[in-house]
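Illustration 12: 2Fe-2S iron-sulfur cluster-binding protein.
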Amino acid sequence: MSAFEKLVVADVQPLTAQACSVSFAVPDELREQFAFHPGQHLTLRTVSATGEERRTYSICSTATELTEDGRVRIGVKRIPDGSFSGWLTSRLRHGDTVEVMAPAGRFGTSTSAANARHVGCIAAGSGITPVLSIAASVLREEPDSRVTLVYGNRTSNDVMFLEELADLKNTYPARFTLLHVLSAEPQLSELLTGRIDAGKVATLRDSVCLDVDAWYLCGPFGMVSVARETLVAGGVAEADIHAELFYVSEANEEAPVDVLPLTSDQQLSQVTVTLAGRTSTVPVGYAGPSILDAVLANRPDAPYACKGGVCGTCRAKVTVGAVAMARNYALEPEEIETGLVLACQSHPVTPEVSLEFA
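Figure caption equivalent — predicted structure in token form:
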């Protein structure tokens, strides 16, 4: 489940001054393992004397690149003081080897040539990475479907995949609507100038996106939250809105929290986990380290990536007892109702807890 494979870097292409795409060569024997649906991500790992680091990066390519060229691509944007993103954007070279986990994530869509739908996408910054895969896949594999993409950036110099998006527009002029919204660069239309806010989303929802069948949102917490709330307020069903976050600020963003009362005065809960056919029981405090951190001390094969409640790699199903999640940006309400939780954000609230990693 959480095994890493060593993939060779086939290509590194600069996208902006702060971003690049990285292509990995996938050998024939790993093609099936690395098959993905548009919107999924890869987890990368580095191991050094100081410890292990993992980061998730969304796939920007389509399945065609994997089946025909044997490659899978990710988009990377350098973040301030980001050692991992700095390495990928500045020092990674063709021929280097990187440890990569098989594709994961539940954001995105499957495609079918029988579909005839209108897909609406709203992205900001590096949030374009999975959205590009979704848009390109729908356009190429569903000849009767349309895509409208609203993409926000500060300036035109910050637009990732600028040429690739232009190529899609030229290839599918009647089925692909592309709207660039720039917050620090005036444009001819007021609608396309400034941040993607509630007013812009409402205008787009009620005009060019009036008949959208499914929405895909990806970007920072604030934009995704505002876009979702505005769409719902205009009558869009929650089930038709799919979202993924790339980053959540600890200081500035309010996280959803499950609050459950403790059912025991014991200091430790006995947590039993089932993973890859093996069951282990570990003592976990009601406060302090998360269930995932406690489990990793005994089961280093437990799956995780961001540990921030964003990527969903560590999702598990509670079968006995109850837990409380401190943060949740990866699971939909209906998934939580079925018992799914994020192990990296979960703390026990009952004397015994059992969970199975999904």
